Description:
It is a single chain. This protein is of the alpha/beta class. It has helices at 8-12, 30-38, 49-58, 71-83, 101-113, 128-134, 148-156, 172-184, 191-221, and strands spanning 5-6, 20-23, 27-28, 43-46, 61-66, 87-90, 119-124, 142-144, 162-166. The protein has three domains: 5-57, no CATH class; 64-184, Ribose 5-phosphate Isomerase B, Chain: A (3-Layer(aba) Sandwich); 194-222. α4 links the parallel β5 and β6. The model has no long low-confidence stretch (mean pLDDT 89).
Amino acid sequence: MPKPVLTEAEVRQLDVGSPCYVLRGTLITPLARELAASRKNEILECASKDELAGLKSATRRIALGADHGGYALKEYLKTYLESAGYQVLDCGTHGPDPVDYPDVALKVALAVKGGEAVRGIMVDGVGTGSCIVANKVPGIRAAHCYDRLTARNSVEHNDANVLTLGGQVVPTDQAALIASTWLNASFAGGRHQRRVSKIEQAEQQFLKDTVAAVAGDCTCAL
């Protein structure tokens, strides 16, 4: 039986920075290896076909959440995403009773940060509050989008990994188009990578300042 081959075309289909899973023993063309390195698509070998299938399915897993204001749209998007072949990690809420959007938005953001999902979508009444909450999590770049242009731009230019939507301001059919556009967009890299790197540097700087401040408080307490 011939060995599987990883080609440049297959690597190009991946999101920039996402892992590239292959079966152990796969032949990797020089162009595929070069492209994967330039796009930061780490090539990871799997010991079995079952392991490969499981890991590949995780790259199609979307964390989806909502508060009561976005519950109806979340349920619509859940059906839509599953019909499009995505796995949905439902972070709640599971009914129309009032809940606090920060609690659910944090679950979505942490699922993405922890690798349980490749991207996240959070819906509240307008979408702004959840965007603010998600962006408090280091490594999360949440974007509040209201049309296909903002959705595409947020990924191509900003490498957004969480999308927030307003359940009370975006019709269901438009929300589905926004989500589809966002999920199918890829980070463009190039000059945009320099700018995203500056976002990450700013994030790390404030994390260091916070740690230093906490350490200083502890020292004073002693």
